Amino acid sequence: MTFQKQETPDIRFVDWGVANNFGDYIEIHKDLPKYPELYKPILKHELRHTKKLFTVEELKMDVTPSGAKLWKLMGFCLIRPKTWIQFLPIYWQRGKGFIWDLNMIIVYTFAVLFLGGIFLWLL
Question: What does pTM read for this prediction?
């Protein structure tokens, strides 16, 4: 049995979002390495992503905890407003145009359907 060595994508430090895997490279917020308790599990999470557009496993991975402390991550995001784009399903980035995150689109769709169902039930 032979194993293929998986190539580690380049890591680019940016001043927006938290972290995203674009297949050939990973974008990570430039301040995240200052917080190893966030950086290490988030990088590990991003490295687990595949280059596929969508899989159920990818969706499960994105909606379950990554190992980073949620309250510390929320604190990190709270004082850095540009990280909030991490939670948008579609956003625009200079040089790339519109970027859409299918997993976030699915999460938002279920949230709207769930909340809409509750609203209709309360009527």
Answer: 0.74
